[in-house]
Amino acid sequence: MMPSPFDLTGKVAIITGGNGGIGLGMARGLARAGASIVIAGRNKDKSKEAVRDVEALGAEALAISVNVTDTSSVAAMVEATLKQFGRIDILINNAGMSVRQPAHVISLEDWNTVIDTNLTSAFICSKAVYPAMKDAGGGKIINIGSMMSIFGASFAPAYAASKGGIVQFTKSIALSWAGDNIQANAILPGWIDTALTLKAREQVPGLNENVLTRTPAKRWGNIDDLAGTAVFLASSASDFVTGTSIPVDGGYSVQS
After folding, report:
1. Per annotation, catalytic residue among 85, 155, 159, 177
2. Do the Cβ atoms of 114 and 98 come closer than 8 Å?
3. Are 202 and 152 in contact (CB under 8 A)?
4. How many helices (H) and strands (E) does the chain have?
5. Which residue, 92, 175, 181, 238, has fewest beta-carbon neighbours within 10 Å?
6. Is 130 a catalytic residue?
7. Which residues is 65 bridged to in the sheet?
8. Cα 90 from Cα 40, distance rounded (Å)
9. pLDDT in tens, 124-175
């Protein structure tokens, strides 16, 4: 009997920012599909809790403390993963943050922090795992964009710029590494109910009402809504899919 194309048994996935929010939702999805999970984040207590969550699903899991904007820290993450599991098959560049201030207010320091955390980190981490994926004969890179990869954001120009950049970076590495059998794609989450968007609802008047009105599904997403798309893009089911960006938004981006 042929194995399911969505089966991730024996695969090893690193998920940056995997200790909460949509990162944890995707970690759960990959764990259910059989992958071993590396939870990479800065908050050690949250990462330990996420590992317990994933292990309860029957998967092997490891928490690694990492600063995704620091090349030496990321190199140590890769080394620790290879030491524990011997391979890296999947990287999900999910770590992110936002500063909600318009362009005439946000400081250069805050701008750089957002760009470094959301965009430059994806470059650093992808470059770091490339040798292991190439040596293994292939791999999957999933970059997490946003609806702000498509739309502007008056209240978050740095965030929107970083997420727009994610889409173009994804296309670039998809082209560069296709010959190494590495597929790179992006997921563009819509408005998902997380700690990050809770702050947005507190800071942006009318946001909750706008989301419910514009989203055909008439609800906010939950973190497990990302699991299926992540499993698809991490598995052999997507071996002929690369350089694309898939909205997971309840129809938000197709509504005028």
Report:
1. 159
2. yes
3. no
4. 9, 7
5. 175
6. no
7. 41
8. 13
9. 999 999 999 999 999 999 999 999 999 998 989 999 999 999 999 999 999 9
| DSSP string of 192-209, one letter each residue | B-SHHHHHHHHHSTTHHH
Give this prediction's pTM: 0.96
Q: What are phi and psi of 142, to 5 degrees?
A: -120, 115
Task: Give the start-to-end residue ranges of the domains of the chain.
Answer: 12-193+223-245
Whether the CB-CB separation of 61 and 36 falls below 8 Å is answered with yes
- Assess contact for 42 and 19: CB atoms under 8 A: no
Residue pLDDT, tens place only, 187-234: 999 999 987 788 778 887 888 898 999 999 999 999 999 999 999 999
Inter-CA distances, 214 with 44, 150, 159, 249, Å: 37, 15, 21, 11
